[in-house]
From TrEMBL:
Polar residues bias (residue ranges): 8-19
InterPro entries: DciA-like (IPR007922)
Region (Disordered): 1-24
Protein's name according to its UniProt entry: DciA family protein
Length: 170
């Protein structure tokens, strides 16, 4: 058995600014064709992708988050991210099945499989307020103008910390 070429092998015109090779659809296809076992998967992958596209064409709004999991012996199985969407899609299954039959897919039954996906939350950027120098000097002078008393001690410390933070001091 021959070893398949690297999936990230260099191809002219695919270099990024850092010099590493970019993944391309052609590179993936070449990788799959290079190995006998992988090449056997290519027709199935193409068939599933075409079926996914046809489903998305029939029900575009619903199919953005759904995916075809299996299509075997006329049985079509979809992965749905939540039960609410599955209920909405279930109402549209007869329309979808009819449209797929018209497009040449021999679909005798459609099953829905709710599979929760782990959502990755992106950290939100921390907003930093940039105070103008005039505001910083006003806060500093307010701190200086406050009398030294136990009631003002916490306020003076907070004003001093805020001024130092905005001036970049630690």
């Amino acid at each position: 058995m021959t070893r398949p070429p690297s999936f990230l092998s260099f191809q002219p015109g695919t270099r990024t600014t850092r010099g590493s090779a970019k993944r391309t659809a052609q590179g993936v296809t070449d990788y799959l064709r290079a190995d006998d076992k992988m090449a056997a998967l290519l027709p199935a992958v193409k068939r599933m992708a075409a079926l996914q596209q046809d489903c998305r064409a029939v029900l575009p709004a619903v199919f953005d988050v759904c995916s075809v999991v299996q299509f075997d012996a006329g049985q079509l199985v979809f992965s749905i991210p939540n039960a609410a969407l599955a209920a909405r899609l279930k109402q549209q299954l007869p329309k979808l099945q009819e449209a797929l039959l018209q497009r040449g897919w021999q679909v005798s039954a459609i099953r829905l499989k709710v599979q929760l996906r782990k959502l990755v939350e992106r950290p939100r950027p921390v907003k930093q307020l940039k105070l103008p120098s005039q505001a910083l000097s006003a806060l500093a002078s307010l701190r200086e103008s406050l009398e030294d008393s136990p009631q003002n001690e916490a306020l003076k410390a907070a004003l001093e910390a805020m001024v130092k933070r905005h001036r970049g001091e630690r």
